[in-house]
Every structure is written in structure tokens, then in C-alpha cells.
Amino acid sequence: MDLLVETDVECPACGEWFPVTVDTSQGDYETTDDCAVCCRPMTVEVECTPGQVLSVRTSAA
Questions:
Q1: Whole-angstrom distance, CA of residue 60 vs CA of residue 38
Q2: Which of 2, 3, 18, 58 could be disulfide-bonded to 36 (CB atoms 3.0-4.6 Å)?
């Protein structure tokens, strides 16, 4: 089972979509990442089970 899953997220600042890799081995979590397009920080909330991303939400950090 592959526990690293790539999924697309939308930046809350610039509206661009880009891929992020989610580590589903740790269960639900929240992290702060920079947008790959505009470099602004955003909060990424992940709901997942091992090997599967259930939902990803982003908001301005």
C-alpha cells in the first residue's frame, strides 16, 4: 500500500491549483505550507485513512 498520495489543492490567496503529497500514515493532520505558485503561506487540513485522502481544505495562514 502506498501511504504517500499526491492530490491537488487550491491556494486561498491566488486561486491556482497545484499538487501536494499527503502522508496518509499519520491520520488526520493540519500543516502550514507555502503556495507553489505565489509562495504565500496557507494552512492545509487533511482528513485521511492509510492510503486514501478523504478531504483536503486550505485556508490563509
A1: 12
A2: 18
pLDDT value of residue 45: 97
23 is written with which cell numbers?
Answer: 502522508
Residue 53 in contact with residue 5, Cβ under 8 Å? yes
Give the chain's length: 61
Backbone angles phi, psi at 45, to 5 degrees: -105, 125
Which whole number is the average pLDDT over 11-34? 96
Cβ-based neighbour number of residue 1 at 10 Å = 7
What is the reported pLDDT for 1? 78
